[in-house]
Amino acid sequence: MDRVKLQPLLLPDLEETMNELGRGAYGVVTEVIVSGTTCAAKKLHNIIVQDYTLSRFSDEVLLHSHQRHPNIVQLIGVYYPPRSQLPMLVMEYLPLSLTQCLEREELPLQMKYSILLDVAKGLCYLHGKRPPIVHRDLTANNVLLTSSYSAKISDLGVSRLADTFKKHHLTTVPGNAMVMSPEALNHNPVYDHKLDVFSYGCLILHVLTGQLPQPTDQFVPERRRRGSFKRVSEWDRRSSYIENIPKENELLPLAKQCLTDAIVLQKN
Predict the structure, then answer these.
(1) Is the peptide bond before 131 cis (omega within 30 degrees of 0)?
(2) Residue 15 has pLDDT above 80, yes or no
(3) 3-92 CATH choice from 3.10.20.340, 3.20.20.140, 1.10.10.10, 3.30.200.20
(4) What is the rounded (10 degree) CA torsion for 249, 125, 63, 148?
(5) Which phi and psi (to 5°) does residue 68 adopt?
(6) SS3 250
(7) Nearest to 262 by CA among 204, 165, 138, 179
(8) Where does the record place the Protein kinase domain (predicted)?
């Protein structure tokens, strides 16, 4: 991409309020004021920035700035603080993450359905691009809510175009391992946009139970020869969480379908 096209994204008129909104594995999110409007800015950790060349960083920021969808948090621009080489990604401000919401209150079931539908719409938008955009870190932490509880997918900083997977060596997915499909955690991973579908299945379980569906290593024993392996479904690995969800819940079949294709090998 032409570097000149990135210039409108640079934000010289920005004031940091020093009010921290949150922090995670990839950076710290703070409140900033841009031309009188409250925004959120993520300052990437140094190790994350080192993974990018300036050209690649510029291309990906430009890519994200062109995404326009009501269920995708809008990237506004890039700000380079004085005397710092670490950029800040400036985004629209939303007051609450889905994780915070689930921790603070018990949402009505229909509101949970509405939030999950919003996330699905945003995900379909990203995957519908040509080539698809793979988020790679879809969790409740990266779903933000408006004051009316509309949901938007945030944190596209580690997403990738699907066709770049053919051109670059893939590293282990940078997201939360508990919501990643097994193939994405291999030493030489091979995956595509279906990675996000698996994470969405985990998100359904998280929203319905209020708990992150952490997989377990405890399985029902099977009679096999010593040292052999058995195929274990990801659905079974999360059975302790799933059993608390009423079986008549209409989203359970969808969650199971999202996780069905993923299996792990467990040594007996």
Answers:
(1) yes
(2) yes
(3) 3.30.200.20
(4) -60
(5) -125, 105
(6) coil
(7) 179
(8) 15-268
Question: Residues spanned by CATH 3.30.200.20 within the chain?
Answer: 3-92
Examine the residue annotation and report whether 137 is marked as an active-site residue of this protein: yes
Q: What is the CATH number of domain 96-267?
A: 1.10.510.10
- Catalytically annotated residue among 59, 137, 155, 196: 137
Q: Name 190's Cβ contacts closer than 8 Å, sequence gap at least 6.
A: 170, 183
Site of tokens 């691009």: 129
Residue 247 annotated in ligand binding: no
Percent of the chain with pLDDT over 90: 29
Q: For residues 189 and 172, is the Cβ–Cβ distance under 8 A?
A: yes
CATH 1.10.510.10 range(s) for the chain read 96-267
The pLDDT tens digits of the residues spanning 183-193 come to 666 666 666 77
Q: Which residues of 129-144 are buried (b: 16+ CB within 10 A; e: fewer)?
A: eeebbbbbbbbbbbbb
Pairwise pLDDT comparison (60 vs 83), residue with the higher score: 83
Q: What is the pTM of this model?
A: 0.79
In the block, residue with structure tokens 């940078």 = 174
CA pseudo-torsion sign 146, 152, 246, 102: negative
